Structure formats: structure tokens, C-alpha cells
């Protein structure tokens, strides 16, 4: 446990040191709530909301609502479909705020496997982005790899786990296909049988800038399947 915890902390510090040298935009916050509920033996509903700010909380950067349902077609392979609504706020050159709205249906497939007790997840997502002000339509591909590292010994109750993620996002256009790359490193703290608090550092690399976020997330899992009588 100590070795895994130290490794995660070292990666967190490395990301933080790198970001300080790359950008002045180092004070963004990212708050998230995620709900995951089994609705049948094969299907899970996932819903989440996010709020991101340019400062600790007050200067809004983004707000979104997101929901999707997956279906396990075979062991650990889960296609899904869902939709997202976003309010995007950015600064113009004169420091005035620009507000855009986005409706985003998406399709994805997730593959999960384990290396020992460490879980590994691969997700490929296709998004159709309908953005206003001005009107714009783009298709974007996203590939996410996630690693969840348990810090407890085998047989012990899990209290802490490590989080490592990398996601690359590509636009389906010829002139500028690269959208961004997002690195995440953090720690999860189990605070109940079906809930956890997650703290992380996120570094997002785009074509002309790097943004960094402090992440605070809370997740709940439920079982909404009808019980057999």
C-alpha cells in the first residue's frame, strides 16, 4: 500500500511541477458529482454534473449535465449511448465573457480488465457537437484509458485508491485534428459502502495553451434492479 501511495503522490507532484512551468493558467477548479446505478443485470445508468471555474468557485468556466446507459454485450465490453448539455463561458480579448451553449449526443464502447487487483478501463467515444454563438457542428473522437489502483492489502477493507487517467481528443477535420490531451492523477477516499470522495490534479494540453485544474468529485453507486421475490 505504501509503495502504491508514494507512486501516486510522486506522479501528482510531477504533473504539478510540469504545469507550473508551462502555463500561468493554474487556478482552475473542477467540481463533479457522479451517480452510477444498475438498472438490470446487463445495464447501468450513469449520470453526472460538472461545474468548472477560472478561480476557486465563482468565475464560471463550464457547466454540464451528462447521462448515458450502457449494456454489457459480453464479459467487460459495454457499448453505450447518451447525451450532454453544456454552458461554455470563455473570455474575449477585451476581458468580456462569451457564453455558448452545446448539445452533444454521443456513442461509446468501454472495455475493462484487471492486472492483479489493479483495474484498467479503455473507453472510445464519438461525439456530435452542436454549438451556438456562432452555430457550429463538429464530430470528435475521444480515447480514455483509466487505471484504478487499490491501496489496501488483499482481504482488507478498501479505504483509499489511486486514480491515473489519460484522454486524447481528436476533431474529425483535416486542417486541425488535434483538440486536446487530458492527464489526471489523484486519490479516492471511500466514505461509505457505495460512495467515495475523489481529489485529483488535471492537466489539459491544447494547441496553444495548457490549463490546470484542482478536482473535487463525489460519486455514488446504487442498485435499482427489481428484487426477486
Produce a short descriptive summary.
With 229 residues, the protein is mainly beta.
Key phrases:
single chain; 229 residues; mainly beta; 11-stranded mixed barrel; 1 helix; 9% helix; 66% strand
Task: Provide a descriptive summary of the structure in words.
This protein is mainly β and 229 residues long. 9% of the residues lie in helices and 66% in strands. It is built from 1 helix and 11 strands; from the N terminus they run αβββββββββββ. It has one helix at residues 2-22; strands at residues 28-38, 43-53, 60-71, 77-91, 97-115, 118-131, 136-150, 160-171, 178-192, 195-206, 210-223. Strands 1-2-3-4-5-6-7-8-9-10-11 form an 11-stranded mixed barrel. The protein is globular. The termini are far apart. Mean pLDDT is 89; it is low at 15-24.
* Terminal-residue CA separation: 42 Å
Q: What is the number of helices? A: 1
* Element pattern in H and E: HEEEEEEEEEEE
Largest sheet: 11 strands, mixed, barrel
Q: What is the percent of helical residues?
A: under 10%
